[in-house]
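Below is a complete specimen:
___
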Amino acid sequence: MTKDKALTGAAGAYYVGFRLSAMGYAVGLTTHGTRAIDMFVANPDTGKSITIQTKTMLNAFVPSKKWEPYWKWRVGTSPQPPCKTFFYAFVDLRNDQSQTPDVFIVPSVRLLPPLLEVYPEPEKEPAKDVWCVIYEKDALKYKNNWDVIRDALA
């Protein structure tokens, strides 16, 4: 069965929305194709809100032998400007429907090098291809760290 990129992206967004709803937050997913924001999240008790952009890969993990193992997601041609209420949720579906996805939560103000890598696209200079790369040594800071969102909404 061919994997559809739109369905992969939707799976990640709905999974993040599910987790946040289960934590007691009000979650509103944007319509498909909305630029930069995939969901709005609000704490009904405090009135605080944030926005999240999800990036999903079927298998983001790269068991590199040359470097240490890492996870990698394409951000686009340029990341959104940093904002204290804007977060990225990088979802790894782990290429296995029987496994729980991993979600790496990165505040946009922290999406800077070395987490951010830019590659030239030879056919489209000067456009760049921007990726988030999280090395295994840094994974615990972001992997399934829902407290970052809890703190922002407290």
